[in-house]
Fold each of these.
Amino acid sequence: VGADVDELESLYRDRFRAFAALATAVVGSTSEAYDVVQDAFVTAVRKRRAYRGDGTLEAWVWRIVLNKARDARRRQRLDDLDPTAATNGHHADADVRLLIARLPARQREAIFLRYYAGLDYAAIAEVLGISSGTVGATLHSARGALREVMEVADA
Amino acid sequence: MPDRLAEALAELAAPAEGLQQNWHDVARRARKARRRTAMALAAAGAVVLASTALAVAPTLLRSNAVAFMRTVAIEPTGAPPAVRRAFAAHRWAGRPRAAASLATTHGRAVLWVAPLRGRGWCEGLQLPRTRFTGRTITCRWWSGTNGPFGGGFVGPALFVGRAAVTDGRELRLRFADGSSVDVPTNDGFYLYRVAERRLIKSEPRALLLREHGRVIGRLRLSSLYGGPLAAGSASHRPGGVDLARARAVLAATTRAGRVAIFSAPSKLAPATCWWLWIRRGTYDSGCVGNDRDTTSLWRVVATRVRVRSKVLWLLWGRAGSDFASLELRYQDGRRVPLARKHGYFLHVVRGPERVRGHRPALLVGRGANGRVLRRQLLLPFAWAPGP
């Protein structure tokens, strides 16, 4: 058991944009997101023998990318956080991104994986280490929270 | 509202455009990492020691604030049964207390809070006409590394959360024009909506925690509309439209070329489609069922878009026939009626209207009896950078 470097390279080339999208959404800047993805794959390459094959390789790498992004975000000082830095000029999304940035971590990550990375419930469950049902409930809660705040903000 | 959220989530654009993959960089970093392993281990030890020392110092310095954020001093108050049940069902939460409330068009919104075993707090925002359940409640375990601001949503107009507002401290919201307002708190909790008259003048930029007039904590809010302009990438007109019956409903000449709203019936469904045309491309489009075409339809788009190095400020959209009039209100108090044709409107914001203090800031739609049916802030204009 263990991953092959070629497999990792292939995964990197196929899914780089999705990994980068998730990292950007979590850390809030594209430049840092690039480092997150690169470092995540460095880790994946160096620890490829630790991949036990009890899930898909892609989910294993997603977990590494997500953890790297979490670490990067944790390193940022709270008062330097820029919840809308990832708007990239798509201003229509800015309000929603801002609200997402304020969700509890689990809900925020589920939203990122679903809407930024385009993963299905099963894949999200594998990445976050929870059941598909919990993924559904988490996304439901997140959408509910966003909807509530949008309603009050508009009231 | 659900539609708006669903659309917003579905349309979230991948924000990583511009990043290029580079596998050679990964390989290079991996080699470098291997070479540095021994050194990194030693350095990691040093870093752990240093970071531990650094982490301890501010924690000790902020111990009062940490203690403050770990407790809830508000006495338990009466709460509606649903709120009581929701908090009671939570494993760690104490009894709920009303920390703050806010008047909305449908009733009062109330921020309920409860202590979390002396290690933080739980909060839940009760909204009118919305069920309060266990999922409404969020709990936060607090540590010294969390800083002075905690939780809640922060938006352009709505601020919900908690700050370490201990004795001698105050919470203020600062705007881009340098002005600031006091944010009322109760045991550090706040539920604050910025007044519309302030929003149309300037953009909130930071929550400031001040102690005896000195800023000791800052939660920066990046500018929502001050960054790069909307991409303005061309899209496609809706599929299935009857092009033979397409017509330019409204048009204007701009420095970037002709801007027009085209409309045509759909061949696929009883619907009317439209698309915004700028110079040689479609920039936005949509369709609406004919049965929804008359009443309460309200689509307002305010955007700044770059077309061939020219920056256009465009306000366009559509209002149903129950809107008897549309009025554009400016930052300087001017009010100008906005003309419509077949429900569509198109306004190009030009030179003098782009000067700060004189920009369009609000669109108001009224019914036949003069009653205001809808209001839409035009924040992309009001908060745009520039003179």
Note: Chain A has seven helices and no strands.
Amino acid sequence: MRRVFDAQLHLLDRQVLDADGVPITAVDDLELSDVPTDTDLPRGAKAPVIESLLSGPVLGTRIFGGRPPASRWHRIPWSSIADVGIVVSLTAKGDELEVTWPERWVRDHIIARIPGGRHDPE
Amino acid sequence: VKRIFAVALGVLTAIGGFVDIGDLVTNAVVGSRFGMSLAWVVVVGVIGICVFANMSGRVAAVSGRATFEIIRERLGPRAGLANLGAGFFINLMTMTAEIGGIALALQLITGIEPLLFVPLAAFGVWIVIWRVKFSQLENATGLLGLSLIVFAVAVFLLGPDWGALGHQALAPSVPSGEQPATYWYYAIALFGAAMTPYEVFFFSSGAVEEGWKRADLGQARANVLVGFPLGGLLSLAIAACAAIVLLPQAIAVTSLSQVVLPVVQAGGTIAFCFVVVGILAATFGAALETTLSSGYTIAQYFGWSWGKFRPPAKAARFHLVMIAGLIAAMAILATGVDPILITEYSVVFSAVALPLTYIPILIIANDSEYMGADVNGRLANALGLVYLVVILIASIAAIPLMIVTGAGA
């Protein structure tokens, strides 16, 4: 089934959930395939495609302007997306994704070290 | 029977959970200065919070999305961030006031300097959030908070001139010796105390925490529509106690001991025990709610994992935000600033910030992409629009009135 998405309306700032339904991030920005700038596009050129969802520092530059170096981009490849509805669902688990490193860092270095941090609330 | 029990429990916790330090202080201050002439504001505020909480609970139950996720989706990252900044700042102020309130209540019992209790209070809040299940924390503080009914009992024990109280409430006018600007300043403070924005963050996130579905909406509505008005009656009783005892003697409320003075005068030691338990439960409950709200708002804006239904390690940054918030609140109180003063400012700033949370909720409640067939009906939208006007007026007028009146001096 083909569906038409508006990137602004249906993708940007949407909540991303992993395969278990755990929130991972919001869609902070999108990475498109290269579009040559400052030149006229040749007739019949291919439309750009979304290569990945971005998260992290790119939110700051989206709000305040500018563009972080590509090495600072944290990507969720488009191929790992299972469904786009009122949330974006992924086929992978959160721990397997590169973008979850800040969450894993806080967990491993702070929260999990406090007694009871790994237990369910009672 | 189980179902009736669940409804009763929900209503009782809503009553006990309605009052927080802002309601306690503001109602007592207003009662001691204006008698019952601002009672109508409590009524307006209670209807407002019913409309507002009902709508945000419905949005959360139907769409499964909490308020701040939606605010960012709809307003975009920039306006969403501005909204988050204001909301978080005011929530931190309320949180500081509630933790200070716990310390003041402990001072009432022990006579020990409240600053010494601040770390204890903050640690208590943290450990409960760290370890206790959401539903239990809600129920325990709500039920214990019911002992604030002693304020209503005290009104009867004091044997007031009912005709005079009724006249003040039903034919309100600015008392002689007070400026109209001051009267309206306190009207906004009282409105802000009844409608504090954290209740909406908390209510919508709580609906997700407890996994509400469409089928639970009836019970949620009963909790709100019965519990909150009865909680509002408690607010009025606090004001009435102050109006009966403090107003004739021209005692200005500047501390928690003056808030409880009429109750003690009416019922002695037993009443004192009830009121102290009630204030402890109310401030502790609200401290939990505001602390959770600080985590909810930030985690939802950035799309992080959040919620008490997960072990802390599965929502690490959410818990880190709350720990940081508690440390910030302790640091503010450590400067020796009076928690009562923070409370008085926090309710006014709450009124200023109301449109920030209210308008997005009103928009989403009409968006069929999120709500399907459960979008707002005509009645909900009519009430919603009336309150939009009231909230905007209160929000715009709050800061100028604060400056003109010297913060109600």
Note: The mean pLDDT of chain A is 85.
